[in-house]
UniProtKB/TrEMBL annotation:
Residues annotated as domain Protein kinase: 6-50
GO molecular function: ATP binding; protein serine/threonine kinase activity
Name of the protein described by the UniProt record: Protein kinase domain-containing protein
Signal peptide (UniProt feature, chain positions): none
GO biological process: signal transduction
Annotated InterPro entries: Kinase-like_dom_sf (IPR011009), Prot_kinase_dom (IPR000719), Protein_kinase_ATP_BS (IPR017441)
Length: 50
């Protein structure tokens, strides 16, 4: 999946609120990890805490 100048690749890990994916900056070739949060789970947590 491509998002701007970043290529989002394989899943490195998963947690309660989202996933950590390997991403590459296509301009520089540098790789890094990016956390992708699931909006619905975050909103549900906020509702539960109230």
């Amino acid at each position: 999946m491509r998002l701007g100048k970043y290529e989002i690749g394989r899943t490195l890990g998963e947690g309660n609120f989202g996933k950590v994916k390997y991403a590459t900056n296509v301009e520089t070739g540098k790789g890094f990890a990016v956390k992708i949060l699931e909006r619905e789970k975050i909103l549900q947590l906020k509702i539960t805490e109230q």
